[in-house]
């Protein structure tokens, strides 16, 4: 809710120096990936990955942990991204034409454009599209690495597992790069937004799941703690006979 509230707050109005006006005189264009498409994109893909993984593994408990982890990531990412946008107030590359739609005016004088366009034009840093795209897709990559056991003894040397796990990053890159092509963000905005989303995804994933080289990296901590009390074999790995359906989920 806080992230949603911050989305509609007015940012800091930064003074624009005459020698930097050229940075904000790019033409106004429609977004290649608008906000509605972005949310459908990040939610459908991430939740579909979780759903398919749990259907294959025939377990519901892991899906709950994954849902808690990714929604936590979305919340943290939204709060940080929107807070920084409001504090920094960096103009977008097309800000001049948001300020003066007819292309005639001096940036030192009051804007004549629509207020909502002007306010939105001061939210360039960091890129929200980039941060959310990378937050979602990096989480999916980490989740797939765990499920496919890419980095432990079972998955080492099997490059097809690695390539499959890395595939969501391609979608995130496409979204992030599109923000510079449609002149809605500077490259620095995209770079920082992508890094922020990656960091938040990494933080939230490993809050719920063990390291990727763990023998049971495909299971969340909640299940590992519970299953550790059950019978295990000599190598310390869980028996295939252990049922995950009967394992309760720890909410706190």
From TrEMBL:
<dbReference type="GO" id="GO:0008195">
    <property type="term" value="F:phosphatidate phosphatase activity"/>
</dbReference>
<dbReference type="InterPro" id="IPR036938">
    <property type="entry name" value="PAP2/HPO_sf"/>
</dbReference>
<dbReference type="GO" id="GO:0016020">
    <property type="term" value="C:membrane"/>
</dbReference>
<dbReference type="GO" id="GO:0046839">
    <property type="term" value="P:phospholipid dephosphorylation"/>
</dbReference>
<feature type="domain" description="Phosphatidic acid phosphatase type 2/haloperoxidase">
    <location>
        <begin position="67"/>
        <end position="205"/>
    </location>
</feature>
<dbReference type="InterPro" id="IPR000326">
    <property type="entry name" value="PAP2/HPO"/>
</dbReference>
<feature type="transmembrane region" description="Helical">
    <location>
        <begin position="37"/>
        <end position="57"/>
    </location>
</feature>
<feature type="transmembrane region" description="Helical">
    <location>
        <begin position="190"/>
        <end position="209"/>
    </location>
</feature>
<feature type="transmembrane region" description="Helical">
    <location>
        <begin position="162"/>
        <end position="178"/>
    </location>
</feature>
<protein>
    <recommendedName>
        <fullName>Phosphatidic acid phosphatase type 2/haloperoxidase domain-containing protein</fullName>
    </recommendedName>
</protein>
<keyword id="KW-1133">Transmembrane helix</keyword>
<dbReference type="Pfam" id="PF01569">
    <property type="entry name" value="PAP2"/>
</dbReference>
<comment type="similarity">
    <text>Belongs to the PA-phosphatase related phosphoesterase family.</text>
</comment>
<dbReference type="GO" id="GO:0006644">
    <property type="term" value="P:phospholipid metabolic process"/>
</dbReference>
<keyword id="KW-0472">Membrane</keyword>
<keyword id="KW-0812">Transmembrane</keyword>
<dbReference type="InterPro" id="IPR043216">
    <property type="entry name" value="PAP-like"/>
</dbReference>
<feature type="transmembrane region" description="Helical">
    <location>
        <begin position="64"/>
        <end position="88"/>
    </location>
</feature>
């Amino acid at each position: 809710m806080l992230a949603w509230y911050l989305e509609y707050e007015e940012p800091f109005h930064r003074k624009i120096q005459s020698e930097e006006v050229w940075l904000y005189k790019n033409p106004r264009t429609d977004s290649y990936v608008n906000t509605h498409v972005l949310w459908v994109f990040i939610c459908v893909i991430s939740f579909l990955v979780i759903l398919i993984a749990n259907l294959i593994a025939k377990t519901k408990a892991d899906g709950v942990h994954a849902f808690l982890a990714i929604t936590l990531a979305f919340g943290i990412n939204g709060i940080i991204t929107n807070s920084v946008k409001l504090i920094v107030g960096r103009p977008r590359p097309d800000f001049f034409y948001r300020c003066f739609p007819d292309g005639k005016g001096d940036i030192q004088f009051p804007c004549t454009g629509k207020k909502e366009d002007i306010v939105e034009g001061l939210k360039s840093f960091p890129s929200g599209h980039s941060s959310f795209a990378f937050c979602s897709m990096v989480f999916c990559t980490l989740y797939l690495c765990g499920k496919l056991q890419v980095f432990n003894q079972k998955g080492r040397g099997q490059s097809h597992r690695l390539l499959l796990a890395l595939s969501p990053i391609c979608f995130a890159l496409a979204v992030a790069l599109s923000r510079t092509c449609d002149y809605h963000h500077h490259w620095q905005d995209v770079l920082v937004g992508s890094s922020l989303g990656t960091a938040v995804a990494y933080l939230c994933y490993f809050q719920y799941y063990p390291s990727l080289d763990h023998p049971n990296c495909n299971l969340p901590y909640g299940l590992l703690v519970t299953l550790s009390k059950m019978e295990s074999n000599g190598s310390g790995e869980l028996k295939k006979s252990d049922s995950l359906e009967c394992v309760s989920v720890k909410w706190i």
